[in-house]
Specification:
Shape of chain A: elongated
Number of strands of chain A: 0
Largest sheet of chain B: 6 strands, mixed
Structural class of chain A: mainly alpha
Radius of gyration of chain B: 24 Å
Strand order of the largest sheet of chain B: 6-7-8-3-9-10
Structural class of chain B: alpha/beta
Oligomer: heterodimer
Chain lengths: 285, 346
């Protein structure tokens, strides 16, 4: 025998493995040039239908905007719609990319070879999410720039408060993605659930309108969805000169939602991991 | 340290049958209401009480047809699957209770060539899997270079794997398994899909790895491969080990037998029935050859001279024509036929 095994155990080794997953995912991501579309073109195209509808409803002399201003407290209707659609796109991309991260590995045929390594299994999901998060943060930045340049949106709020909202938005959005990722491995098909969730976010969270226009029962449901708080806090922080106090209640709710969804995501991942060993789901297509 | 590299005791794996495969009960067919008391799902037994003891440093071949339970056994040993009952230990570690220690002791190549990333280069793949196997970066770099050199991939190590041939991908997959220098290697159908030259090279590599001290558990449905490489062979069928011995030991079991191989065109099952009824014919197994309408018929008998004239006479009927004939020593395929009454390729 040449010598004993070269594998070394420990926290540092697990962190290096996590770093390797992030690096692998980023390298593969950069080798598919379609990311240029999601980064530069999609943020401009997607909200266009809503913006043009809003322009049509505002009337030739923009009198309709007074109605909008009274309901939202915002005069910047393009920014209002742009922020709602940006958050919706973020959640949508997380559901498709993070939610299907393990399933995509399964399709590639690499999930089993990863799973046989003596490393922390959650690193595969966590590591796959990081490049995706970086690309989404880039998309938010590019979108903001494009709305300012092409639509003349004035983001008059605080950059730091906006970044704080994004930071608090990450745990609930990705916690939901982790939960999805584990369920997709078990169910093997989850397109219908993705459509359902993004439909619910679109209708209940007010991506293009204030939730005040919704009937009471719909507003009650909206109160249980973290995207409602993300959109509201982001609009408050980015579009008008507001203090931290104005967004603090929403940040608190996001912290609670974040803790809940991350715990749920991790718990379901552990459950899936055990169940997959019993049923052989890891190797099935 | 345990004397055995791999031990399994009454290992069983059952899977719930898929809804469409499981026949619905009469009660369920009639019931409109989908809830209420559920009947237990019918189970399919993929591995049925397998007992193995694999010595350190040996090549152990697990030979059986597709669906015999070879891959399921491998998947339980490499911790991808949990046994339904029984016990398995790798390098002295229990596959359920000490799964991470088992993973550190093993290098596994599963069947198929998609266990590596096609959008990464060969070198990037190995560097990535080295990190997953917790090999320190400085050691990993040298190890990756050494393996690339050994597998003769130096010229193309920085090209994307999607541009590689099947044989090159398999060499990267094997390098991945060797990265952490594990004492035990599990190779599931390693030559499947390879061209004859690549398969020969791989078999030479397996022999070299044994000389370096690795214990190798090899599954295959190629009898020549099992015969050539294995120190001992377990023949598996319908989830059970039906024979376990050295290749010579297995063949000696039917050493008194001879095998008449007939190559015929236009095979008719009625002739098969007639030949089976000839006194002295133990088994008869037809196998269709790749050429149109040509068949290879294997007859096991204790005395070929006595039955040969009758066999030749019965074959040339109903449009069937004898093209070639040999009397040969039994192979592992014949052992399998003798044990199960069917060919490995069935």
């Amino acid at each position: 025998m040449e010598s004993t095994t070269l594998a070394r155990t420990g926290v540092i080794s697990n962190l290096r493995a996590l770093q390797a997953v992030i690096s692998r995912e980023w390298t593969i991501f950069m080798r598919y040039p379609s990311w240029i579309i999601s980064l530069f073109i999609w943020p401009l195209i997607f909200p266009m239908a809503y913006l043009l509808t809003a322009r049509a409803f505002s009337g030739p002399d923009n009198t309709g905007l007074l109605q909008f201003q009274a309901a939202t407290g915002q005069s910047e209707y393009i920014g209002f719609i742009a922020i709602g659609t940006m958050i919706w796109m973020w959640q949508n991309v997380v559901l498709w990319n993070v939610g299907f991260a393990l399933r995509n590995e399964q399709h590639r045929g690499t999930l089993e070879s990863n799973w046989m390594a003596p490393t922390w299994r959650f690193a595969f999901l966590l590591g796959s999410s990081v490049p995706q998060l970086v690309s989404m943060l880039l998309m938010l930045g590019v979108s903001t720039l494009e709305y300012t340049l092409f639509f003349g949106v004035r983001f008059e709020g605080s950059l730091w408060l906006s970044l704080l909202v994004i930071l608090f938005a990450i745990p609930p959005i990705y916690g939901l993605g982790f939960t999805f990722a584990s369920l997709v491995i078990t169910a093997r098909e989850a397109n219908a659930f993705v459509f359902l969730v993004r439909g619910v976010v679109m209708i209940f969270c007010g991506i293009t309108y204030p939730i005040a226009v919704l009937p009471g029962w719909m507003q009650a449901i909206a109160a249980w969805l973290p995207q409602t708080y993300i959109i509201r806090a982001f609009r408050t922080a980015a579009l008008s000169a507001s203090s931290f106090d104005a967004i603090a209640p929403d940040l608190l709710m996001l912290a609670l939602f974040g803790a809940f969804w991350l715990c749920l995501g991790y718990t379901i991942f552990k459950w899936m991991e055990r169940r997959a060993r019993q049923t052989g789901a890891i190797g099935q297509y | 340290m345990s004397d055995w590299a791999v031990v399994t005791e009454n290992l069983v794996k059952k899977f719930p049958q898929r809804a469409q495969a499981a026949e619905k009960t009469e009660a369920k067919k009639k019931s409109f209401w989908p809830f209420g008391k559920k009947e237990p799902r019918p189970m399919f037994t993929a591995v049925d009480g397998v007992n193995l003891q694999i010595k350190r440093g040996e090549i152990f071949g697990l030979l059986g047809p597709n669906g015999a339970g070879k891959s399921t056994t491998i998947r339980m040993l490499c911790t991808l699957l949990e046994p339904t009952s029984g016990r398995a230990a790798v390098n002295g570690f229990d596959v359920v209770k000490q799964a991470n220690e088992v993973r550190r002791s093993l290098g596994t190549v599963l069947a198929g060539e998609r266990s590596i990333y096609w959008k990464l280069s060969g070198r990037e793949n190995l560097t990535y899997f080295a990190a997953l196997n917790h090999i320190p970066p400085a050691v990993a770099k040298k190890r990756v270079d050494d393996l690339i050199e050994r597998m003769e991939l130096k010229e193309r190590a920085d090209e994307l794997v999607e541009k590689y041939s099947t044989g090159m991908r398999q060499r990267i997959a094997i390098s991945r398994a060797l990265l952490a220098r594990p004492p035990i290697l599990l190779l599931d159908e390693p030559t499947l899909g390879l061209d004859p030259q690549a398969a020969r090279n791989l078999r030479e590599l397996i022999v070299d790895l044994q000389k370096e001290g690795h214990t190798i558990l090899l599954t295959t449905h190629y009898m020549e491969e099992a015969d050539q490489l294995s120190d001992r062979i377990g023949i598996i069928d319908t989830g059970k080990i039906i024979a376990l011995d050295t290749p010579e030991g297995l063949k000696q079991r039917i050493d008194q037998a001879e095998v008449i191989r007939l190559e015929v065109s236009g095979w008719d099952d009625k002739i098969g029935a007639q030949l089976r009824s000839v006194a002295g014919v133990d088994t008869l197994t037809p196998r269709k050859l790749e050429q149109d309408s040509q068949w290879e018929i294997s007859l096991q008998t204790a005395n070929s001279r006595a039955i040969l004239p009758v066999v030749v006479e019965k074959v040339n009927h109903n449009g069937t024509r004898l093209l070639n004939m040999n009397i040969v020593r039994p192979t592992l395929e014949d052992v399998f036929i003798n044990l199960t009454g069917k060919a490995l390729r069935d």
